[in-house]
Structure prediction request, 361 residues.
Amino acid sequence: MEFKPDWEQAQKRMLAWWEQEILDRPCLQVSAPRPGQEQVLLDAAIRPQWMSLERWWTDTDAALERGERRLQATYFAGEAFPLFNPNLGPDLFSAFLGAEVRLQDEDTNWVEPLITDWATAPELRLHRDSYWYKLQLRLLRQAQEAGRGRWITGLPDTHAGGDAFSALRGRKNACLDLYDHPDEVRRALSQIDVAMKQVYDEYLSILEPERWGSSSGWLPAWYSGKANALQCDFIALVSPAHMREFILPSIIAEARCLDRGIFHLDGPGSMRHLDALLETPEIHAIQWVYGAGNEPATRWVPLMRRIQAAGKSVWVSATPEEVETLYTYLRPEGLMVNTWASSAQEADDLVALVAGLAGAH
Prediction:
């Protein structure tokens, strides 16, 4: 791979990580700027003054060029790898079902609720002629074509299931509906699940995971077949009973579209659902996101031990200073720490440190 000369060996280590095993050393992902490329990385994340917010989101040629510049400027150490993120916003799946997109800033967008009254609620189905659906497929095709042998083009941020329901209904109404309109909620989620499977079929036909493997575009966890991040931020607002009754079936339905699924567990507000996730065999790994104000990562070693004890792999972001502690107090098998360094040498030194720790275990 052009931007990752040791890609073949990194693939083997990541396959072992999914199985809570070690090939020759534990997995560690470290990214660093290539010499003299620091400003390139900064510039790639900033919208030029002449570019409108709409063009920032919809110009697929420009998005591809930004992503390519970022990958060229990055050194990928350990199991870090060049990953093109084709995301066009967190609520885009809901736009595929007919919701109207609102652009907030360079990093996020949202949709207007589509279900305002259950008496007049539309059928939730995939609109293949949707502007945003066609735009997403175009970006995927462009990135996949340009990236063959150079990078992995990731799967877009899906946000189906409970997150799509919450976006289409509005969060407050979605929460109340779990009590007041449970049958309508089940019907809506069932329709969302059908559309989700159709979207996955289209994505996977473009990305050819049987040839290149795959990963989420924003959560670098590669597998030799079909892999993606599973998520539902809406669970932070619901009870464990409602999560199991309404939300978990859709998470499982999405996971069954894949060979490997890693669940994005977002913050302490979602911790009450950990048992349900750990009991779900279709989930193979957990990404723990402790969130701003809940640092350091090492504070959460007991929680990550619970995940490992349940036979799931762990993926966590941490500072370079925390790497040694995490690999000392957690089982290195099935542990993936994602971090950064200021130079290629520092990145390689961190990988060597972890290799040495494994030898001491």
In short: The two ends are 32 Å apart (CA to CA).
